[in-house]
Structure formats: structure tokens, C-alpha cells
Amino acid sequence: MRVRVDPLVCEANAVCVGLAPEVFDLDDEDVLRILAPDVPPEEQDRVRHAVRSCPKAALTLDE
């Protein structure tokens, strides 16, 4: 599984960071960084939940 962010859509609401902090982070300029684009198996359920919970639908999963 791989996760991507569309930087033109992301508003840095940090919902994903709260749900999967091992995979998502906001930098000092409020730009979303994906720490683990190739999602480890133990994080996949949380990342799926984070993608579904994104208020701007800025995250995409490739499974």
C-alpha cells in the first residue's frame, strides 16, 4: 500500500497526523509530509481511516 497527498488540495488540517502520526507529519510551514509513503502493514488500517477522514480528500491510497 502506498499513500500520496495532493499538496494543492491539502489544507494542513492535521486530521491524518492525529490518526497516524507514524506516517504523517506537518513541517514548520504547515506542509504535510508523508513519513512512510510505503505504508507498513501494521499501520495500514490507521492510514485507511486517515484517508477516509481527510476533510479535503487530499489523500490517495494505491493498494
Automatic annotation (TrEMBL):
**Keywords attached to this entry:** 3Fe-4S, Electron transport, Iron, Iron-sulfur, Metal-binding, Transport
Keyword check for Repeat = no
Q: Name one GO molecular function term.
A: 3 iron, 4 sulfur cluster binding
Name the needed cofactors. Answer: [3Fe-4S] cluster
Q: Which Gene3D superfamilies does the UniProt entry name for this protein?
A: 3.30.70.20
Q: Does the keyword Transport apply?
A: yes
Q: Which PANTHER family match?
A: FERREDOXIN
Specify the protein name: Ferredoxin
Q: What is the lineage of its organism?
A: Bacteria, Bacillati, Actinomycetota, Actinomycetes, Streptosporangiales
